[in-house]
Hints:
Distance between the termini: 26 Å
Largest sheet: 6 strands, antiparallel, barrel
Order of helices and strands: EEEEEEEEH
Shape: globular
Radius of gyration: 14 Å
Helix content: under 10%
Strand order of the largest sheet: 1-2-3-8-7-6
Strand content: 35-45%
Oligomer: single chain
Amino acid sequence: xxLFRRERRIKERYRPLATVVFTVHSGKDPGRVSSxxxxxxxxxSSTGMSVVTPRLAPDGxxxxxxxxxxxxxxxxxxxxxxxxxxxRVQGTVIWFRAADEPAGFxxxxxxxxxxxxxxxELRLAPRKDPR
Length: 131
């Protein structure tokens, strides 16, 4: 276990089959908002989620920081769980890295501003194990 791979989650994560559409709001200039990006939810809890995305900086606004990491950017996202009503969440990205698959994609972890208990109540449909 390393400092960077240590499990820090408090709430149980679900592995839903869900799409997410998010925009990035500039921390330096809150009126500056990226165009929507569609990704896949890798896992989710009432306090956060991880998202696989094809882009880290839509319209030049990085998912995490503005201007040499001086200003923290914000994420506004809508989760579309299969067969369930959409859930809107807001928060900040706390980590990101290259995704294992698909090639050229990224994954980021987002902490919600407010707990979203509706995500636990939905009991999102689990992903099928590819094995």
